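Question:
Write out your own:
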Amino acid sequence: MKGNRICSVSPYELANSFAIRKALETLAVRYAAVRITDEELDAMRELLAQADKAFAEFSDNELLDRFFPIVKKFNKIAFEACRSERLAELVWAQRELFDRYMVMRIILPNRINK
């Protein structure tokens, strides 16, 4: 079989996956809240300033191109600050699963129009 295949996800499976992701991310952020360093907080503040600047200066696809890397860096700091390598791995595995669906939802429709 050639090409990519798209696996459908039922609403029930999607809801369960979101519940798992929410639980993992909530735990990671709770741990991070008491374990984060001042340097990590400063880096997150800088990323928030970059996000504000991106929103002020860009729109549409260019905004997405600028904003998503900032969000990824912000989340990386937040989840690493939990100081649990295994928990961070589980969080990223869940996020990766959803990133695939987001790419299809955000990127592919734009390609259809070209």
About this structure: The chain is about 80% helix and 0% strand. The mean pLDDT is 85. Helices lie at 11-35, 38-57, 60-80, 85-112.
